[in-house]
Amino acid sequence: MFSLEKEIKESGLIIVDSRNVGETDILIADNVYNDSVIARYLFFMCNKTSWHSTLQNAALDNLVQEIYFTQHSDLSWNLYLVAVMEPNDFAGLSMYDKLEFLRDTEFTRKLIVPCDHFSEIIPVGRIITQNQTEEAILPIQNWEEILYAEGLSNAWLDKPNENILDEFLKTGVDKVREQTTEKNFVTQGREVQEICSIEIPQDFRPHCYANDITLNFPRVCLFCGPNGVGKTSILEAIELAMTGGVRKSSKNPSKDRPVKLLVKTDSETATISSKFDLPERKRREEEWYACHSDSWQRSQLPSLFHTYNQFSVEDVYLYVKGDGQPEYSQQFSQMLFGSETIHCQRHWQEYIEDIDKKKKGFKREIQSLRERLCAIDDYPSTERSALEGYLIHSDFNFDIKALDLPETVCAAIDQIKPYYDKLNDKLRDSGNWSESTCSPNLMIQRREELDKLEKLLQAKKAALTDKINQLENVYQREWGLQKKQEELQQDLDQLSNLPTSVTLLQFLKENPDFTLKYQQLQTEVIEAQEIWNKYRAFSSEFLDLKTYSAPQITLEQAEEEYRSKNEQEQIIVEKLKDQDRLIRQAQETTDALNKTMAEIRSAGLRYLELRPDIEGCPLCGNPINAEQIYHYLNTATDLQSNKLTNLLNARQAIQSLYDHQKSVVSEAESQVHFLHRIQEAWQYAIKIGLAEKNDEKQVSMLLSYVKKLIADEKRAEQKYLLADADFSFCWDSLGSNKQLGTKETFLSDLKEACQSTRSILQAMKIKILSDSPAELYYAISKSKEEKSEFLLQVNLDLEAMRSEISNLEHIIPQERTYTQEIAQQVDKVKENLNRLDNLNTLWRKAFPYLKPETLRKGSLDWGRQLPELRQLAVSCIQSNQLAKEKKEIQSRINDLEQRCINADRLWTTLNRLRPAEEYSKEFIKDHLHQISNIFMQLHTPQEYTGLILKRQGEKEYLYAVRDTESKNVVPLEEMSTGQQTSVVLSVLMEMHLSMHSVPKFLLIDEPVSNVDDLNILSMLDFFRELVISQHRQLFVTTANQNVAKLFRRKFSFLEEDYSEFNIQRTDEMRFDIIVRKYNQKGILTVQRG
Fold first, then answer.
1. Nearest-5° Cα angle at 846, 841 to 852
2. How far apart are the C-alpha atoms of 568 and 663, rounded to whole Å?
């Protein structure tokens, strides 16, 4: 049987009061720490049926407000209203009702607690650690232990190195392992319990620190301030002192002046420095994180520190940045073990791939070498004895005992055989070696004969060359004359097709004044046409003025008259508007009176029906009878109607006056327009040159002048027609020479044609002084005559030259045939000499290798043995080479097989290394219950009841559960970012809590970046329990001032054990740190850091 009072006491809370609000009993309990009340709870039992009535109870609201407003300290920020329900009622309550209650943060934080989970949830943020037995296995440590056990180093976790892999496959020995010196370090049991202070040298962050700084740290430290002021830099300084490096920084800080921490261990107060040696690093790894592998060479401290003691917003990003629902082990591997672990895993996996490729390459090479061995075995071999036996019975004399006999035989035959092959069959049969065949006199005789023939050949070749050169010279001269002939003909054709015809030039030469007269007539026509065009334009524009009579007033007078009459018209318009307004008002009054009188008449008639004998007005009491009342009722509206009629008549009179005035204004406007037209006509006449600008005239005179200009159009037209007739007569006088251009363009076309003709003549190098028609005519006539005479002489020279060419072309082939016959005789004599030389050389080359009896014979029969002897020698050489190759191949196969054995050993060992996902999966499986409990404390509203692993196919995924029967589950990627942050923080907190020797502090950088207000409350409540029940020291950063204030409300009860470090930038862009301490009522102290 569940007892709320008993459960409250067992949870460690102290019941301080009880109240009754309606039918609901409220138990009030305090969470007390070091005699300070840090939280106050209001518990009440509730069921599904009474849920709404209980929450709508005004007495409950009044009690909550009473407790809230009676608090005058930070305790008002730590009030909790807790509804306790039986499990069935909790499960049956709708999610809407739950969320509505939990999201209400007015006065208190609200919670709904099922009875069976009371001890897990209360006090808020509670951490249960009784089942913590197994610590997480670190992948890198386990991998190196496996490698070390197999005699391998951790070099296989580094970036793949081709040389290291090839050396191991060759020797089977890990050279890096051989160079490793094993050392045993004695641990001193220094488990870090708390960081007391830090000394940071100025050169750690020169852009942040003006001087060295020292900060004292209590149990809970909050670093707040805007982004970029250096909050995270303080956490990184702690990380540097603990690990010797900063994980997020690629540039290592200077170690000349190290960062120092003053820490409390389980046995002493000690100083930890960022500058330490290998033994110290090994001790820290072993004492703080239980890393005992002696094979480690790289520093694991940064990765371990991040895994167990550090949390940042980047961890959440790693978790939520992926798409879809990855397997949970993949999600947490890098987050739990750091990027270095993932890199090491990638490296040994790449080594496995490289080994596979190497093994396949080895096996392919072994197969290829074995196939080569089979081919060598199938190849026919020749023994040395066969060559020796053949030499004994041959005509050759070689030392058969020589080691290099086959090579010597091949070399000798290769010297002799080329000369033997040059001899034809006839010479081989008759080419016996004797004194006569190699006689010097015979050679001299043959050479003298060759010299005579060669001299004769040279003479004939020289004579033939002279004839050919002579012919070539004649060809060149003929080509030159032909080219000159073509040029002369082109010049004559060009002179016949000049832009100006000779007949036109002759006409102009005979009539020298024609062009001047033509130009004068054309100018007259153009001028007459321009004047006529001006008159036509003027007449067309102002023809309407021809019928007007001149007014007796000026333009200014007409405009003044128009303005006056227009103003009178506007006055009448205003009167019309006023009259219309009076008519509208009268009409409205009439309508209202008619309506009112209709009502009065109706009421009066009804009254008279009731009082026919009336003797006084019922309203004013004046004496009046019924007949008079009838009269007044019938005449009142008629009076108003007469007024409206009078107004309408008056408006008609005003309208008549307006119509007359409008006509008068229109006449005045027309008169002004007419006078403006006369002025426009005069200005236009001045513009086109038909009038003088300074000739001022009156209106009547201007109008007369305008009419005169209109009448003058006919005279201008007649003058133009007469000029054009004279111009046409002059054009017609050209007769057949009118082919150049048109009448209008004749002179310009003539000038252009003469200039073009002169340019052509000058290009033909014809001397000309000007481009006058007479000069052109003379130059063209003279040039035609001279070029015609020259062309006639060129034709005669060409005829004579072609006769000479025909004679040379007949002689040269005869001379070439005779020269070729002599050349053939020379070639025949040379061939005989070469054969004699070859025969002599052959005997000289073969002499050292022939037996004496063969030389005595003097026959060339021994040459027929050369191919077979050489084949035997080559076969012996090949057999020797194949035997050597076979030995080398077998040695290579043995080496490759050993490499395969070494590769298999390394491959097997590396395949024993498990991926990091398996370690994270193993950790989460073993600690899932505790991770789920932490998650329940962190996430609000309590939409989920826990976390479970659920298998889909061959993979497992992490889900959040919405009910206790695990039927309604939600994948992690469908949760909000704040809830996902809670999952990440739950895993990291459990990782930290599961390691017993881990330093007892946490660096938490911007934990609320992706968290809403409700989840911030849950997170801070959890942090508070972490400090109280787990005795952890916290270092937290935030740029959110509201979060900083809320953080202080949650931790001010610690008083001296809580400090707020407010960091700002100064004018010099350096740190300015203000340290504040609080109690639950406000600030205790303020000092500069």
1. 130
2. 12
